[in-house]
């Protein structure tokens, strides 16, 4: 049994999980009809979480619907534990690739292959694991310097404070399955904000539904976040939960320049679907 970064709130806060062998194996993850990564995450969690527990020891048998209510950040925690079980390794590793913008050129992109145990990085202090102290802490308020301006409706005025909540798996699935919400990077960012916004100071519950939640194809954030100062505030103020990799360092194997160190989740689930990664060819140049 291990602690989740967030957990599930039902009658009680269940923030510990016990896992089992993935039901149906890796093929079960491929049997999702919209083929989105969010749906695979949902099947993964519902297939390998045996039960959830409170800190006091009360247990809860999670349903597939409950899996959709879990926060996306918890997928990585469960995934790390399942990876240990699946590979029979206490500190498994997988391939991470880091692009060097310093010495790469057109048609000669240079990648540095890194194979490190994230468990070691956590133990050594280069990566932090941050857990919620209480479920209510998965929400946070952001102040908008300019504010949202709404005119010509029953709701008029300037609104300067919004509350957001960590993204759930079902919300990610909603984004991925709504046409137009993944067309560009900006569309995705707006869509995430739309899903995360749970309150606006001065809005009623009905206003939240009418202006933000009702029409998935019409982005509230794109329509009303018109000032760069407000966009900056939204991008800067985030909840730091899960894996914090600010102190990890990776140097380019060609020019030795610092090229970052952010955790690369691209091949995170590669242990379930072992196959040759196309980036390996690039990394050997």
In terms of topology, how is this protein built?
Elements lengths: L1 E8 L3 E7 L5 H6 L6 H12 E5 L5 E2 L3 H6 L3 H15 L8 E4 L11 E4 L3 H7 L3 E3 L8 E12 L6 E9 L3 H9 L7 H12 E4 L4 H9 L6 H5 L3 H9 L5 E3 L34 H5 L2
Antiparallel strand pairs: 1-2, 2-3, 3-4, 5-6, 7-11, 8-9, 9-10
Task: Describe, in short, the structure shown.
The chain has eleven helices and eleven strands.
Structure, explained:
The chain has 11 helices and 11 strands. The chain has 285 residues and is of the alpha+beta class. The strands form 4 sheets. The protein has a 4-stranded antiparallel beta sheet. It has a 3-stranded antiparallel beta sheet with strand order 8-9-10. A hairpin with a 3-residue loop joins β1 and β2. α2 runs antiparallel to α6.
Number of helices: 11
The first-to-last residue Cα distance is 43 Å
The percentage helix is 25-40%
Shape: globular
In the predicted model, the low-confidence regions spanning at least 5 consecutive residues are 278-285
Query: What strand order characterises the main sheet?
Result: 1-2-3-4
Give the class from helix and strand content and strand pairing. Answer: alpha+beta
Report the major sheet. 4 strands, antiparallel
Strand content: 15-25%
Radius of gyration: 21 Å
Tell me the number of strands.
11
Output the helix-strand order.
Answer: EEHHEEHHEEHEEEHHEHHHEH
Mean pLDDT: 91
Question: Which key features would you list for this structure?
Answer:
21% strand; alpha+beta; 285 residues; disordered C terminus; 3-stranded antiparallel beta sheet; 11 strands; 4-stranded antiparallel beta sheet
């Amino acid at each position: 049994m291990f602690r989740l970064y967030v957990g599930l709130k039902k009658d009680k806060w269940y923030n510990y999980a016990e896992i089992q062998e993935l039901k149906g194996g890796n093929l079960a993850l491929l049997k999702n009809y919209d083929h989105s990564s969010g749906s695979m995450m949902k099947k993964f969690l519902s297939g390998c979480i045996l039960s959830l527990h409170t800190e006091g020891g009360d247990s809860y048998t999670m349903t597939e619907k409950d899996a959709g209510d879990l926060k996306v950040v918890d997928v990585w925690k469960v995934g790390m534990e399942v990876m240990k079980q699946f590979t029979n390794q206490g500190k498994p590793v997988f391939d991470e690739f880091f692009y060097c913008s310093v010495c790469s050129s057109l048609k000669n992109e240079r990648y540095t292959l890194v194979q490190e145990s994230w468990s070691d990085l956590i133990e050594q202090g280069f990566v932090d694991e941050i857990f919620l102290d209480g479920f209510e802490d998965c929400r946070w308020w952001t102040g908008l310097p300019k504010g949202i301006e709404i005119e010509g409706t029953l709701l008029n005025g300037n609104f300067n404070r919004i509350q957001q909540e960590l993204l759930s798996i079902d919300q990610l699935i909603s984004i991925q399955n709504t046409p137009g919400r993944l067309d560009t990077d900006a569309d995705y960012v707006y869509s995430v904000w739309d899903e995360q916004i749970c309150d606006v100071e001065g809005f009623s519950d009905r206003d939240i539904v009418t202006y933000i939640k009702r029409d998935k194809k019409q982005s509230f954030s794109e329509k009303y976040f018109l000032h760069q100062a407000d966009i900056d505030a939204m991008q800067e103020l985030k909840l730091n939960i899960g894996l914090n990799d600010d102190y990890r360092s990776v140097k380019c194997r060609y020019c030795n320049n610092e090229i970052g160190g952010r955790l690369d989740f691209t091949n995170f689930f590669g242990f379930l679907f072992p196959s040759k990664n196309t980036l390996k060819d690039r990394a050997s140049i």
